[in-house]
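>> received
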Amino acid sequence: MPRATDVDIHPDQKPDEDPSLAVRNNGGAAPPADPAPAGRREALLLLSFGGPEGHDDVMPFLENVTRGRGIPRERLEAVAEHYHHVGGVSPINDQNKALIAAVEADLAAAGIEMPVYWGNRNWAPYVEDTWRQMADDGVEHVYVFATSAYASASGCRQYHEDIARARAVTGGGPTAEKLPHYFDAPGFVRANADALAAALAELPDGVRDTARLVATAHSIPDAMAAVAGPEGHAYEAELTAAVQQVVDAAAPGRPFDLVWQSRSGPPSVPWLEPDVNDHLRALAAAGEQAVVLLPIGFVSDHLEVVWDLDNEARATAGEVGLTFVRAGTAGTHPAFVATVRELLQERRAGGPPRLGTNCPAACCFVARPTR
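>> returned
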């Protein structure tokens, strides 16, 4: 059954915009070498997925997410039950508001006077409306921080296209550059390492040192994974690198697994495997007694973490007799909040990037299938 929760991962994601319209990650090639011009009116935009704010919003939101894909109504209704189960309100919205408030405070403490805006792809505040507001406010240039740390069509390229669409709809507005994806930024690693250490501390003494470490990320179609990043397969590579750094910091020397969750799309389309629930069953069959899940692929505890891990994966672990703990996400951890500022400061200063990874906006292309 197709899933549509808080992260936009589907087998035929690719919008129809001309890639040449997309906002370039620093021009689509090298990032700007010169510092930001003095006096330019700049802003930071937190760009995210969006989510419903009540029961009445759920079905219209899911229709936005899946528009043009021919998803049967009964399948949308099944997915809608996940939202209704938590009151019809997506956790991602309050989590984004909290992150924006933390970033504003961090910028102010660092002496950086810059407004922070919020825009979404699939629900209010829509990025197009935010773009109009920034233009009306006199903003000349926007640094875009996306709530996705990794390369892929859905995790990076589509955010470029969101901005391209907003600029086309509003007739231009501010210029923009997307900040790099930040899977390897020290603050992102630190936030996840602290969460992993806290999760390990929750385990009983008898299994704490032997519990299996299992990192999870949103599954994507094999075809999408193959073209992620300039040389392909960057999604899996970046996730593996991030997990290794987190484990090295919190539990050095321990092995880990990287598995996948929240798959959507027809069974006939190959996606990254194994699924986290299948993996938990395999671990139990192999004699493992405890597991710590680390949702490294996500930056906040939104619905795909709360439902797919805290509900479904936890239930699977209980069925097969595994002691289960789930680590937190980066959220508003001070080191992660500082990462946002550091990425911004680096881009304003110009010169070669040191933090995160820059990809051309034209990579990660996935064509829509012919229907």
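>> The chain has two domains: 19-182+333-349, 186-326.
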